[in-house]
Design a protein that fits this description.
287 residues, single chain, 2 domains, mainly alpha, 11 helices, 0% strand, disordered C terminus
Protein backbone atom coordinates (compact mmCIF):
# COMPACT_ATOMS: atom_id res chain seq x y z
CA UNK A 1 0.00 0.00 0.00
CA UNK A 2 1.57 3.25 -1.17
CA UNK A 3 1.40 6.16 1.22
CA UNK A 4 1.39 9.81 0.26
CA UNK A 5 4.24 12.03 1.30
CA UNK A 6 3.46 15.27 3.10
CA UNK A 7 3.92 17.24 -0.12
CA UNK A 8 1.68 14.89 -2.07
CA UNK A 9 -0.93 15.08 0.68
CA UNK A 10 -1.01 18.88 0.48
CA UNK A 11 -1.32 18.72 -3.31
CA UNK A 12 -4.11 16.15 -3.00
CA UNK A 13 -6.06 18.28 -0.54
CA UNK A 14 -5.72 21.39 -2.74
CA UNK A 15 -6.71 19.49 -5.89
CA UNK A 16 -9.69 17.99 -4.09
CA UNK A 17 -10.83 21.38 -2.86
CA UNK A 18 -10.72 22.75 -6.42
CA UNK A 19 -12.29 19.67 -8.02
CA UNK A 20 -15.17 19.12 -5.58
CA UNK A 21 -17.41 22.13 -6.42
CA UNK A 22 -17.26 21.41 -10.15
CA UNK A 23 -18.10 17.77 -9.44
CA UNK A 24 -21.13 18.70 -7.32
CA UNK A 25 -22.37 21.18 -9.93
CA UNK A 26 -21.89 18.49 -12.61
CA UNK A 27 -24.12 16.16 -10.58
CA UNK A 28 -26.93 18.71 -10.46
CA UNK A 29 -26.61 19.93 -14.05
CA UNK A 30 -26.27 16.56 -15.81
CA UNK A 31 -29.94 15.49 -15.34
CA UNK A 32 -31.14 18.85 -16.65
CA UNK A 33 -29.01 18.42 -19.73
CA UNK A 34 -30.24 14.85 -20.28
CA UNK A 35 -33.89 15.88 -19.96
CA UNK A 36 -33.30 18.73 -22.41
CA UNK A 37 -31.79 16.28 -24.90
CA UNK A 38 -34.74 13.90 -24.45
CA UNK A 39 -37.15 16.79 -25.04
CA UNK A 40 -35.38 17.89 -28.22
CA UNK A 41 -35.22 14.33 -29.57
CA UNK A 42 -38.97 13.92 -29.02
CA UNK A 43 -39.63 17.21 -30.79
CA UNK A 44 -37.57 16.10 -33.80
CA UNK A 45 -38.98 12.57 -33.93
CA UNK A 46 -42.63 13.62 -33.63
CA UNK A 47 -42.07 16.73 -35.80
CA UNK A 48 -43.66 18.95 -33.20
CA UNK A 49 -43.62 22.72 -33.18
CA UNK A 50 -42.56 22.90 -29.57
CA UNK A 51 -39.62 25.10 -28.77
CA UNK A 52 -36.38 23.21 -28.26
CA UNK A 53 -34.52 23.56 -25.00
CA UNK A 54 -31.01 24.93 -25.00
CA UNK A 55 -28.18 22.72 -23.78
CA UNK A 56 -27.30 23.21 -20.13
CA UNK A 57 -23.58 23.84 -19.45
CA UNK A 58 -22.41 21.01 -17.20
CA UNK A 59 -20.08 23.10 -15.05
CA UNK A 60 -21.88 26.44 -14.96
CA UNK A 61 -22.86 27.93 -11.62
CA UNK A 62 -26.36 26.91 -10.59
CA UNK A 63 -27.44 30.48 -9.92
CA UNK A 64 -30.52 32.14 -11.34
CA UNK A 65 -29.44 34.50 -14.11
CA UNK A 66 -31.75 37.19 -12.72
CA UNK A 67 -29.65 37.32 -9.59
CA UNK A 68 -27.64 40.53 -9.17
CA UNK A 69 -24.76 38.82 -7.42
CA UNK A 70 -21.33 40.34 -7.93
CA UNK A 71 -18.22 38.58 -9.19
CA UNK A 72 -16.90 37.82 -5.70
CA UNK A 73 -20.16 36.11 -4.72
CA UNK A 74 -20.12 34.02 -7.89
CA UNK A 75 -16.48 33.11 -7.33
CA UNK A 76 -17.14 31.98 -3.75
CA UNK A 77 -20.06 29.93 -5.04
CA UNK A 78 -17.44 27.62 -6.58
CA UNK A 79 -15.73 27.05 -3.22
CA UNK A 80 -16.86 24.24 -0.89
CA UNK A 81 -18.28 25.35 2.47
CA UNK A 82 -18.24 28.98 1.29
CA UNK A 83 -20.84 28.05 -1.33
CA UNK A 84 -23.21 26.96 1.43
CA UNK A 85 -22.70 30.21 3.35
CA UNK A 86 -23.18 32.33 0.22
CA UNK A 87 -26.28 30.39 -0.82
CA UNK A 88 -27.84 30.81 2.65
CA UNK A 89 -27.01 34.50 3.05
CA UNK A 90 -26.57 36.23 -0.32
CA UNK A 91 -28.45 33.95 -2.73
CA UNK A 92 -31.39 32.65 -0.72
CA UNK A 93 -33.90 32.70 -3.59
CA UNK A 94 -31.53 32.53 -6.54
CA UNK A 95 -29.86 29.13 -6.26
CA UNK A 96 -31.34 26.36 -8.37
CA UNK A 97 -30.20 23.58 -6.04
CA UNK A 98 -30.64 23.14 -2.31
CA UNK A 99 -27.53 24.32 -0.42
CA UNK A 100 -27.86 21.46 2.09
CA UNK A 101 -27.80 18.85 -0.67
CA UNK A 102 -24.73 20.37 -2.28
CA UNK A 103 -22.95 20.66 1.08
CA UNK A 104 -23.62 16.97 1.79
CA UNK A 105 -22.31 15.86 -1.62
CA UNK A 106 -19.20 18.04 -1.36
CA UNK A 107 -18.42 16.81 2.15
CA UNK A 108 -18.71 13.16 1.10
CA UNK A 109 -16.63 13.82 -2.01
CA UNK A 110 -13.81 15.52 -0.11
CA UNK A 111 -13.65 12.72 2.47
CA UNK A 112 -13.73 10.07 -0.27
CA UNK A 113 -10.96 11.67 -2.32
CA UNK A 114 -8.58 12.16 0.58
CA UNK A 115 -9.14 8.76 2.21
CA UNK A 116 -8.81 6.92 -1.11
CA UNK A 117 -5.55 8.64 -1.96
CA UNK A 118 -4.23 7.94 1.55
CA UNK A 119 -5.11 4.26 1.19
CA UNK A 120 -3.94 3.59 -2.37
CA UNK A 121 -1.51 6.43 -2.99
CA UNK A 122 -1.10 8.42 -6.19
CA UNK A 123 -1.13 5.31 -8.39
CA UNK A 124 -3.25 4.04 -11.30
CA UNK A 125 -4.99 1.72 -8.84
CA UNK A 126 -5.80 4.62 -6.56
CA UNK A 127 -7.06 6.84 -9.37
CA UNK A 128 -9.21 4.08 -10.87
CA UNK A 129 -10.67 3.23 -7.46
CA UNK A 130 -11.37 6.91 -6.84
CA UNK A 131 -13.17 7.16 -10.18
CA UNK A 132 -15.35 4.21 -9.15
CA UNK A 133 -16.20 5.80 -5.80
CA UNK A 134 -17.04 9.13 -7.44
CA UNK A 135 -19.32 7.38 -9.92
CA UNK A 136 -21.17 5.78 -7.00
CA UNK A 137 -21.61 9.18 -5.37
CA UNK A 138 -22.86 10.74 -8.60
CA UNK A 139 -25.27 7.91 -9.41
CA UNK A 140 -26.69 7.84 -5.88
CA UNK A 141 -27.25 11.61 -5.83
CA UNK A 142 -28.75 11.81 -9.32
CA UNK A 143 -30.99 8.77 -8.91
CA UNK A 144 -32.24 9.97 -5.53
CA UNK A 145 -33.20 13.37 -6.96
CA UNK A 146 -34.43 12.54 -10.47
CA UNK A 147 -34.82 8.73 -10.65
CA UNK A 148 -32.32 8.70 -13.52
CA UNK A 149 -29.07 6.75 -13.85
CA UNK A 150 -27.19 8.40 -16.74
CA UNK A 151 -25.52 6.08 -19.25
CA UNK A 152 -22.53 8.40 -19.33
CA UNK A 153 -21.78 7.25 -15.78
CA UNK A 154 -22.84 3.59 -15.70
CA UNK A 155 -21.70 2.52 -19.18
CA UNK A 156 -18.48 4.52 -19.05
CA UNK A 157 -17.53 3.05 -15.68
CA UNK A 158 -18.46 -0.43 -16.94
CA UNK A 159 -15.75 -0.19 -19.59
CA UNK A 160 -13.41 1.50 -17.12
CA UNK A 161 -13.83 -1.47 -14.76
CA UNK A 162 -12.93 -3.93 -17.51
CA UNK A 163 -9.88 -1.87 -18.48
CA UNK A 164 -8.81 -1.65 -14.82
CA UNK A 165 -8.98 -5.44 -14.56
CA UNK A 166 -6.95 -5.90 -17.74
CA UNK A 167 -4.26 -3.48 -16.54
CA UNK A 168 -4.15 -5.01 -13.06
CA UNK A 169 -5.38 -1.84 -11.37
CA UNK A 170 -8.22 -3.79 -9.77
CA UNK A 171 -8.11 -6.94 -7.65
CA UNK A 172 -10.80 -8.52 -9.82
CA UNK A 173 -9.38 -10.64 -12.64
CA UNK A 174 -10.63 -9.93 -16.15
CA UNK A 175 -12.54 -13.23 -16.37
CA UNK A 176 -14.47 -12.40 -13.22
CA UNK A 177 -15.00 -8.82 -14.37
CA UNK A 178 -16.51 -9.93 -17.68
CA UNK A 179 -18.77 -12.54 -16.10
CA UNK A 180 -19.74 -10.05 -13.41
CA UNK A 181 -20.82 -7.53 -16.05
CA UNK A 182 -22.78 -10.18 -17.96
CA UNK A 183 -24.48 -11.51 -14.82
CA UNK A 184 -25.15 -8.02 -13.51
CA UNK A 185 -27.17 -7.07 -16.57
CA UNK A 186 -28.64 -10.32 -17.88
CA UNK A 187 -29.67 -11.85 -14.54
CA UNK A 188 -31.90 -9.01 -13.24
CA UNK A 189 -33.15 -8.34 -16.79
CA UNK A 190 -34.34 -11.92 -17.24
CA UNK A 191 -35.98 -11.95 -13.80
CA UNK A 192 -37.71 -8.63 -14.49
CA UNK A 193 -39.03 -9.85 -17.86
CA UNK A 194 -40.26 -13.10 -16.33
CA UNK A 195 -42.16 -11.16 -13.67
CA UNK A 196 -43.63 -8.86 -16.33
CA UNK A 197 -44.88 -11.81 -18.38
CA UNK A 198 -46.31 -13.44 -15.28
CA UNK A 199 -48.11 -10.40 -13.89
CA UNK A 200 -48.70 -8.33 -17.07
CA UNK A 201 -47.17 -5.33 -15.35
CA UNK A 202 -44.38 -2.98 -16.48
CA UNK A 203 -40.79 -3.46 -15.38
CA UNK A 204 -40.23 -2.93 -11.68
CA UNK A 205 -36.63 -1.93 -12.37
CA UNK A 206 -35.41 0.52 -14.96
CA UNK A 207 -32.78 -0.21 -17.56
CA UNK A 208 -30.52 2.22 -15.79
CA UNK A 209 -30.47 -0.17 -12.82
CA UNK A 210 -29.48 -3.05 -15.12
CA UNK A 211 -26.59 -1.04 -16.55
CA UNK A 212 -25.49 -0.01 -13.09
CA UNK A 213 -25.49 -3.66 -11.96
CA UNK A 214 -23.36 -4.52 -14.98
CA UNK A 215 -20.95 -1.77 -13.90
CA UNK A 216 -20.83 -3.15 -10.36
CA UNK A 217 -20.24 -6.65 -11.72
CA UNK A 218 -17.23 -5.40 -13.67
CA UNK A 219 -15.73 -3.74 -10.60
CA UNK A 220 -16.72 -6.23 -7.89
CA UNK A 221 -17.00 -9.58 -9.66
CA UNK A 222 -20.09 -11.82 -9.88
CA UNK A 223 -20.22 -12.98 -6.26
CA UNK A 224 -19.76 -9.56 -4.71
CA UNK A 225 -22.24 -8.15 -7.21
CA UNK A 226 -24.75 -10.75 -6.00
CA UNK A 227 -24.00 -9.74 -2.41
CA UNK A 228 -24.66 -6.14 -3.40
CA UNK A 229 -28.07 -6.97 -4.85
CA UNK A 230 -29.11 -9.00 -1.81
CA UNK A 231 -28.02 -6.46 0.80
CA UNK A 232 -29.35 -3.50 -1.21
CA UNK A 233 -32.69 -5.29 -1.50
CA UNK A 234 -32.84 -5.72 2.28
CA UNK A 235 -32.04 -2.04 2.73
CA UNK A 236 -34.67 -1.11 0.14
CA UNK A 237 -37.36 -3.21 1.86
CA UNK A 238 -36.49 -1.76 5.27
CA UNK A 239 -36.66 1.78 3.89
CA UNK A 240 -39.98 1.05 2.17
CA UNK A 241 -41.54 -0.39 5.32
CA UNK A 242 -40.42 2.58 7.43
CA UNK A 243 -41.70 5.09 4.87
CA UNK A 244 -44.92 3.13 4.43
CA UNK A 245 -45.62 3.19 8.17
CA UNK A 246 -44.99 6.93 8.08
CA UNK A 247 -47.46 7.26 5.16
CA UNK A 248 -44.74 8.78 2.97
CA UNK A 249 -45.01 6.24 0.15
CA UNK A 250 -47.53 3.77 -1.26
CA UNK A 251 -47.22 0.45 -3.08
CA UNK A 252 -47.31 2.37 -6.38
CA UNK A 253 -44.54 4.83 -5.45
CA UNK A 254 -41.36 4.83 -7.54
CA UNK A 255 -38.40 4.56 -5.19
CA UNK A 256 -34.89 4.80 -6.70
CA UNK A 257 -32.75 1.71 -6.17
CA UNK A 258 -29.44 3.28 -7.19
CA UNK A 259 -28.62 4.85 -3.81
CA UNK A 260 -28.98 1.50 -2.04
CA UNK A 261 -26.73 -0.20 -4.60
CA UNK A 262 -24.13 2.56 -4.28
CA UNK A 263 -24.01 2.43 -0.48
CA UNK A 264 -23.70 -1.37 -0.36
CA UNK A 265 -21.09 -1.44 -3.15
CA UNK A 266 -19.00 1.12 -1.28
CA UNK A 267 -19.35 -0.86 1.95
CA UNK A 268 -18.21 -4.06 0.25
CA UNK A 269 -15.12 -2.43 -1.22
CA UNK A 270 -14.28 -0.96 2.18
CA UNK A 271 -14.54 -4.38 3.83
CA UNK A 272 -17.07 -3.01 6.28
CA UNK A 273 -19.15 -6.17 5.91
CA UNK A 274 -18.14 -9.84 5.61
CA UNK A 275 -18.43 -11.18 2.11
CA UNK A 276 -19.94 -14.54 1.34
CA UNK A 277 -16.92 -15.35 -0.83
CA UNK A 278 -14.54 -14.83 2.09
CA UNK A 279 -16.43 -17.16 4.41
CA UNK A 280 -17.16 -19.91 1.93
CA UNK A 281 -13.93 -19.62 -0.07
CA UNK A 282 -15.88 -19.80 -3.29
CA UNK A 283 -14.00 -17.15 -5.19
CA UNK A 284 -11.13 -19.52 -5.99
CA UNK A 285 -13.51 -21.77 -7.91
CA UNK A 286 -14.23 -19.03 -10.42
CA UNK A 287 -10.64 -18.24 -11.32
Amino acid sequence: MDLLSSQQLVITICATYVFTPFFSIFIFQLPRRILAEYHNECVDFLELKNKKLSAVPLFSATINEKSKSNKLVRALYYAPIFSYIIAKTKLKEHTIIQPEQRLLIETITIITCITTMLEFGNTPSGLSQLAFYLSLIAIAAIDARTKLIPDILSVTMLWAGLIASIQGWNEIQIQLAVWGAVAGYCGPWLISKAVCLRTNRPDGMGYGDFKMLAMLGAWLGPLNMLNTIILASFGFMFYFMVMRMANKVSRHSLIPFGPFLSIVAWAITQNNIFLFSEHLKISGLLV
